[in-house]
Amino acid sequence: MNAVSTTRKRIGVLISGRGSNMAALLRNDCGGDVVVVGSNKAEAKGLELAQDAGIETFALSHKSFASREAFDAALIEQLETYRLDLLVLAGFMRILTPQFTDHFAGRLLNIHPSLLPSYPGLDTHERALNDGVKLHGCTVHFVTSVLDHGPIIAQAAVQVEDDDTPETLAAKVLVQEHQILPYAVRLFCEDRLQANGLRVSVRPIAPVIVKHA
Ligand code: GAR
Questions:
Q1: Domain that holds residue 17
Q2: Is the residue at 3 inside a domain?
Q3: Region class of 191: left (phi > 0), else alpha (psi between -120 and 50), else beta
Q4: Is this prediction's pTM over 0.70?
């Protein structure tokens, strides 16, 4: 009989605020277990949500460190104690050093509120409206050392309407973020993602082979 691995992936999530994407990961079966939620802000609302769900949390303030490198080194050290298979940046509003992105290369995902490679960085909804785009959306991608860049796993688009404001557009995009993040994490946990340069393909689910005596 073929050996089937039943080991569930250990997932860490980093947040800086509300934590609604992290909550979407907890709500859905992503094929793995969120074992820790960390934040650079002790007051991040999402930490309370995680605690209420019985998930271990930690806060590590970047303000206690003299440099970006020192903070990232301490964050790596903290995260290493959880033996993570996957680390998800879910609204973690920090620019990461190459030292950090290299450490987690291939097991670091980010959700970003735009259709990358359009609108990396901040204020994505406002910038999209100012440009008059008709489609906007969100992206889940593998993280590289380049900000909001890396092999794209999933995207979802929304229509931009004449009366949209940055707030209404953000709300529409957020609904889609809560769909594609659990979806992408699940694909990762099922070992179905294969990156070839910037292109990611999704392996089909292996068929179950039933052997007859
Ligand atoms: C989300 O819209 C996420 O895409 C964005 O921050 C928000 C966090 O919301 N992330 C970035 O802008 C990262 N570049 P949440 O805390 O409710 O998940």
A1: 9-202
A2: no
A3: left
A4: yes
Distance, CA of 122 to CA of 12 (rounded, Å):
24
CA nearest neighbour of 159 among 197, 185, 129, 202: 129
Q: How confident is the model at residue 6 (pLDDT cuts 50, 70, 90)?
A: low
What CATH number did the domain enclosing 48 receive?
A: 3.40.50.170
Average per-residue pLDDT in the chain?
Answer: 95
Residue with tokens 């440099």: 67
Ligand 1 test: best mutation among 45, 93, 124, most atoms within 8 Å of CB?
93
Token representation of residue 2: 């073929």
Number of domains in the chain: 1
Structure tokens belonging to residue 1: 């009989």
Residue 207 domain-assigned?
Answer: no
**Ligand 1 closest atom vs CA 173:** 2
Considering the domain boundaries, does residue 119 fall inside one?
yes
195 has which bridge partners? 200
In a domain, 66, yes or no: yes
- Residue 15 Cβ contacting ligand 1 at under 6 Å: yes
CA distance 155 to 200: 12
The answer to whether 149 is a known catalytic residue is no
Q: What is the DSSP letter of 197?
A: T
